[in-house]
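B., you asked whether I could sanity-check this one before it goes into the benchmark set. Here's the sequence:
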Amino acid sequence: MARTRFVPDSGLTLRMTAVMFVLGGLFVALVVSLMAISRSAPLAIVIGLVGIGVAFFQWWRSDTVALKAMRARVVTPEQAPELHGMIDRLCAMADMPKPRVAIADTHVPNAFATGRSPERSAVCVTTGILQLLTVEELEGVLAHELSHVAHRDVLVMTVASSAGIVAGMVTQGAQYGGFGLARSRGNNDNGGGAIALVLALVVSLVVYAVSFVALRLLSRYRELCADRSGAYLTQKPSALASALTKISGQMNAVPERDLRAAQKMNAFFITPAVRGVSMSTLTATHPPLEQRLDQLAKISASLGKSY
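And here's what the prediction gave me:
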């Protein structure tokens, strides 16, 4: 974690380290397995290089890609003085570098943080959230997002997803063409070629499944950590609780077209762009709203404030 005044969280650090270690190990296992299955070292090396390339691209361009995905525009202090003023105050309170500030023109009330480091980061809010929240509520949301930047968990989420991306590519390749796996066993050994294809599919699917579950477990914990860190920074947990309640409730009024367009960023939003879906399942990217509100209520009680 970067040196800031945000409350440190050893649990988040441990989980991020574990996820990176496990997924890195699985990625190596995937490459080695493909070498053994296909008996083609060049093929496995190419896949390994592709995986490293994907991870590097995710790390280097994460902020640009995320902002483009939401069609967000970076705004200057002259264009958004109140928004910049809030972020200036929060960054001074947290003793951290100020990120770029962006606005996405969409009815979906949401916000997210992105970037490979506190020095190379961006915080984006939507026009929908600017219209919905009060100043104190928006400040709570921004503190939550700045906490993601300070803890660097958004970077870990972005890079760690590379293992699942490569595993998905291998799965598709094995299904459509087999990466030459069948041919690698020779024309007189069709049975061996079929077994190689099945093994390649199984290995890549296992890597993808583990990556999928591990990232969602980490995602849910990091959201609770950001709620907690942001609430302690502002000393106003009730404002963040109110913001989360408003955002979740407003999702039902957002046009379906806008929700679909925004859903690709759900793992990074403060609240997922969905309606009428339980967030208590294994596949959820965020903890249930009730759990988040309960945590904020306990923080409020510990601060000696009414909730």
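One thing to flag: Confidence is low (pLDDT under 50) at residues 182-187. Otherwise nothing jumped out at me.
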